[in-house]
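User: For my dataset I need records formatted as: sequence, then structure tokens, nothing else. Please produce one.
Assistant:
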Amino acid sequence: MGKPQAHHRKHHALRKRYIRIEGWKTFQESKSNGTEEDASEKEKDAEETVSVEYRGERFSGYNKPKRTPKHPKKSHVVLIKDDGKDRMIRFGQQGASTAGKPKAGEGQTMKKKRASFKARHSKNIAKGKTSAAYWANKVKW
């Protein structure tokens, strides 16, 4: 009888911590961290940030890029809605040292590197959210 009880306790503890669907926090956990008003606000926030699963990958939502460190070639991936269909776009060279966002006091070489990328890919960037160049420009440059 020891095994089923241990399993039951483990399952009960997991249920208290998380609702299995989408990893949302339960009301009980939110309640223990603050007042009931705070808990209801946290529940609303949890409902707004729904995670989406597509082709075995979990995304925090549409148009929200994420890193893919284990992918052999591409460094990021994003899920978009294109004409009502879900599309996964991989972009960015894995391991490339990109300029990132402009920083105060950044060197001339990084400014030139950023300008070169934007000039070289300007037509593809202009295509919008359906192109990998758009996302690379937004996230990596």
